[in-house]
Amino acid sequence: MAASSAFMAGSHVWVEDPDDAWIDGEVIEVKGDEIKVKCTSNKTIVAKTSSAHPKDTEVPPTGVDDMTKLAYLHEPGVLQNLKCRYDVNEIYTYTGSILIAVNPFQRLPHLYDMQVMKKYKGVALGELSPHPFAVADSAYRQMINESISQAILVSGESGAGKTESTKMLMRYLAYMGGRVDNSEERSVEQKVLESNPVLEAFGNAKTVRNNNSSRFGKFVELQFDQRGRISGAAIRTYLLERSRVCQVSDPERNYHCFYMLCAAPKEEVDKYKLGNPKTFHYLNQSNCIELDAINDSEEYLATRRAMDVVGMSQEEQDAIFRVVAGILHLGNVDFAKGKETDSSQPKDDKSRLHLKTTAELFMCDDKALEESLCKRVFVTRDESIIKALDPDAAALSRDALAKIVYSKLFDWLVEKINVAIGQDMDSKFLIGVLDIYGFESFKTNRCLTGMLCFRHLRELLFL
Predict the structure, then answer these.
(1) 11, 80, 392, 403: which could join 27 in a potential S-S bond, CB 3.0 to 4.6 Å?
(2) Angle subtended at Cα 361 by Cα 389 and Cα 342, rounded to the nearest 5 degrees
(3) Are residues 49 and 77 in the same domain?
(4) 174 among annotated binding-site residues
(5) Is 80 in the same domain as 210?
(6) Is 90 annotated as belonging to a binding site?
(7) Residue 122 domain boundaries
(8) Is 156 known as a binding-site position?
(9) Are 132 and 168 in contact (CB under 8 A)?
C-alpha cells in the first residue's frame, strides 16, 4: 500500500476506474489520505492514497520484454506493459523465469515452425524474445546439465490458451528428446501429441469465454533416458467437471463428444438411436448447440482417427460411443409418482423407451436399471433394506449414475492412452507439464487473458 507521504503534486500515478480498471494521471492536490488526480483521459478523480500506485514514466511505449525491469511490479504496471506489447503483436512477456502469454485469438503458425525451434535450441532464457520454446529448452537443459527432473506449470483463465501453450511445450520437448526412428511405428512423443484430440473430445466443452475449454486438469510426464531421449510417457488427469454432464448453463455446452456423436454419419446415428441434440435433456438446457468455429461432424471423424492412432480397436470405440449415447438416453428418463407411497416409476412410454434404449446400450437388464434408479438399498450389519425413492430423488439418482459412468469412461480412456503410449518405469529423468484446470471469475477479474495469471500464480507458489 502506498502511504500518503509517497505522493505529492506532480506525481504520476495509477488509480482505479470502474470502466477501465486502472487509469493513469498526475496528482494535482494532496489532502490527508486523499489525492486529486488529473487523468490523461481529462477526467479528474479523487482517490484514497492507499488504493493508488506510482507510475513508471520511463517505460518504453512498446513495453519491456521482462517485467522484472519495471520500476514497479504492481497490477496496473503489469497490465499496462502487457497491453503495450500486445498492441505491437508481442503476445509473450517474461517476469523472470515466468512466461506470461496473452491469447491472440488467431493462429500464428510462423511463431512455432521448425526454424523457430532451431533458433531457441541451447539459448539461455532471456537472450531471445520471450517464447514457450525458451521455457521448454531451459527445462530440458537443466534436466541434462543438473541431472534433476523438471516441471512446468501452466495456469490461467479459461480461454487463455493454456492447452495450446502446453502443446507448444510438448512439441519442443519432443523435438529435443525425440528419437530418430525410421520404422513405421509412431514414436512415444507422436502418440502423446496425437492423443490430444481424444482427451479434448471427452474432456473439453464450450464455456462462456472459450469454445474449447479443458474441464479437467492434466499432468503429462515425459520420461527420458540417460542420453536425454524420450523413453516413455504418462498422462495423469484429475478434477474432471462431472456436474457438466447433467447441468449446462446457457450459453455453454456439454462435452464435445455428445454433439459429435449426434453429428456422426447417418449409420452411426441410427445405430445409437440418436438424432437432433435439441431432443436430449442433457444438451437442450442451453440454447447453444452448434459452434461457428467447430464442425462437429468433422471432429467426430478426427476423434475416430485419433483413437486409431492410440491403439483403440473398433470394438472398443463402439463401446465408448455406446456409453456416450446411453448417457444421453438416460437423461431423457423422467419419473412420476408410483403406486406406492413415496415411490416412483418412468413417467410415460417415451421415458420407458429411453430407459430400454439405455439398458441396451449399457448392455444391462432394463428392469434392473429401473430398480436401481427408483429404489435405494441400505446395507446394515444384519440385513439389506430397500427404500423406494420419490420422483425427485429418482431424478437425482439418474443424474448421479450419468456422472459416475462418464467419469469412469474418461478414466478408462486415459488409462488406455497410457498403455498405448508406453511408460518407462526405469526412466532416468522426467519433465512434467501441469496444465491446471481453467478458472473463470467474472466479478473480480479485470486482467487481460493470459497463460499465467500473475495473482493466481503467486498464490500457487507461496501458499
Answers:
(1) 11
(2) 10
(3) no
(4) no
(5) yes
(6) no
(7) 67-243+421-462
(8) yes
(9) yes
Q: pLDDT tens-digit profile of 212-229?
A: 888 998 899 999 999 999
CA distances from 318 to 254, 330, 391, 438, 448 (A): 21, 18, 32, 31, 43
Phi and psi angles of residue 73, each rounded to the nearest 5 degrees, phi first: -100, 65
In this structure, what are the phi and psi dihedrals at residue 209, rounded to the nearest 5 degrees?
-105, -5
* Whether residues 37 and 89 fall in one domain: no
Q: Judge if 141 and 220 occupy the same domain.
A: yes
Alpha carbon 47 to its chain centroid, in Å, reads 38
The count of domains in the chain is 2
Distance of CA 407 to the CA centre of its chain: 16
Whether the predicted pLDDT of 78 surpasses 50: yes
The total of other beta-carbon atoms located within 10 Å of residue 380's CB is 7
372: in domain: no
Q: Is 436 exposed, middle or buried (0-12, 13-18, 19+ CB in 10 A)?
A: buried
Q: Which residues are catalytic?
A: 158-159, 163, 210, 213-214, 438, 440
Q: Is 162 known as a binding-site position? A: yes
Q: 0.70 exceeded by the pTM?
A: yes
Based on the fold, state whether residues 11 and 99 are members of the same structural domain: no
3-state secondary structure of 49: helix
CATH of residue 167: 3.40.850.10
Cβ atoms of 220 and 233 within 8 Å: the answer is yes
pLDDT over 70 percentage in the chain: 91
Mapped onto helix, strand or coil, the DSSP state of residue 62 is coil
pLDDT digits 0-9 by tens, 281-308: 999 999 999 998 889 999 999 999 999 9
Is residue 255 in some structural domain? Answer: no
| pLDDT surpasses 90 at 124 | yes
pLDDT at 441: 56
The verdict on residue 201 lying in a domain is yes
Does 163 belong to an annotated binding site? yes
CATH code, domain carrying 8 = 2.30.30.360
State whether 74 and 204 are in the same domain: yes
Look up residue 440 and give its DSSP letter.
-
Residue 288, judged by CB atoms within 10 A of its CB (0-12, 13-18, 19+), counts as middle
Question: CB–CB of 276/237 below 8 Å?
Answer: no
159 assigned to a ligand binding site? yes
pLDDT at 457 over 50: no
Q: Is residue 87 part of a domain?
A: yes
Give the residue ranges of DSSP H helices in 26-154: 75-87, 114-120, 132-146
Whether 161 has a binding-site annotation, put simply, is yes
**420: annotated binding-site residue?**
no
pLDDT, tens only, 230-270: 999 999 988 789 999 999 999 999 999 999 999 999 999 99
CA–CA separation, 232 and 422 (whole Å): 6
Same domain, 104 and 185: yes
